[in-house]
Amino acid sequence: MKVAEMIKSLWMIVRSVIPLAGFLIIFQVLIFRKPLGDLKSLLLGIVMSVFGLFLFLKGASISLIPLGGSFGRSIVVLDNILLIIAIAFLLGFLATLVEPALTSTSLEIEEVSTGTIPSASITYSAAVGFGLGMALGVFKIVSGTSIKTIMVPFLIAMTVLVILSSKEMVGIAFDVAAATTGPVNIPITVAISIGLSSVIQGSDPLLNGFGLVGFAFMGAAMSILFLGTVMRFF
Fold first, then answer.
1. Both 45 and 137 in a single domain?
2. Which of 2, 81, 91, 134 is the most buried (most CB within 10 A)?
3. Residue 147 to residue 151: CA distance in whole angstroms
4. How far is it, in rounded angstroms, from Cα 34 to Cα 13?
5. How far apart are CA 190 and CA 102, in angstroms?
6. H helices within 27-146, ranges in order?
7. Is the same domain home to 97 and 140?
8. Tens digit of each residue's pLDDT (9 = 90 or more) over 137-195
9. Could you tell me if 91 and 200 lie in one domain?
10. Which residues are within 8 A (CB) of 57 and not within 5 positions of it... i.e. 6 or more apart?
11. Which among 128, 154, 124 is positioned nearest to 140, based on CA atoms?
12. For 28-61, how does the pLDDT look when each residue is reduced to its tens digit (9 = 90+)?
């Protein structure tokens, strides 16, 4: 990796983080008139955030994304659609379990609900839903099925679950689903979908390589809504 490229990438992250931190600090001090606390720790945290994001994004670009793309291009050699779908589900399930955003969100839910909604239930339900959504998205790419054919029943089922689920779980479901599409899942999922679509005969990666993240998001949301329905009636 060239030094000039590293400096350019680092500068892009600085331009993103510093304005955000500055905006929060200005409001905290000038508008809310609240102290910043330990200024040294605050500045150190901002620096660590910049370098942490830099290392993660660079690491993902040279490892997770190429590996995911290679996985997507290679999985078709199995020549068994059921096996491919099963592997896609397992990959989505395992990747979601280590998603840091989901972990923090599920712990917050457990704390706010005073333990009535265990974090493990949220985490594993979301992981199952994400895996199912990813499997469905891979099926769409491999089979060439129209996205409308899958999306319409998906939306109908989600609407029914929103009606049946407890009121508390409706909001939780969408926040948890958003948390599953974090820094671990997104590079892998997008790379796999584009890589897989690029080797399917007659498939346009621009048309069929995208949408997998959306399916996974909806799968996670539906899984949490289903959990809310079970908790409401049972």
1. no
2. 134
3. 6
4. 27
5. 18
6. 39-59, 65-74, 81-97, 100-112, 119-143
7. yes
8. 999 998 888 888 988 998 999 999 999 999 889 999 999 999 999 888 888 898 998 89
9. yes
10. 9, 13
11. 154
12. 999 888 888 888 999 999 999 999 989 988 888 8
- Would residue 73 count as lying in a domain? no
Structure tokens at 81: 């659609």
Which residue in 163, 145, 120, 162 sits closest to 215, CA to CA?
Answer: 145
Average pLDDT estimate for 101-123 = 94
Total residue count of the chain as it appears in this document: 234
Is 126 part of a structural domain of the chain?
A: yes
- Residue at 119 is within a domain: yes
Name every residue whose Cβ is closer than 8 Å to that of residue 147 and which is 6 or more positions away in sequence.
140, 211
Which residue range(s) make up the domain with 12?
1-62
Q: Are residues 111 and 218 in the same domain?
A: yes
According to DSSP, residue 99 is labeled -
Q: Is 211 helix (H, G, I), strand (E, B) or coil?
A: coil
Closest CA to 216 of 157, 137, 120: 137
Same domain, 112 and 180: yes
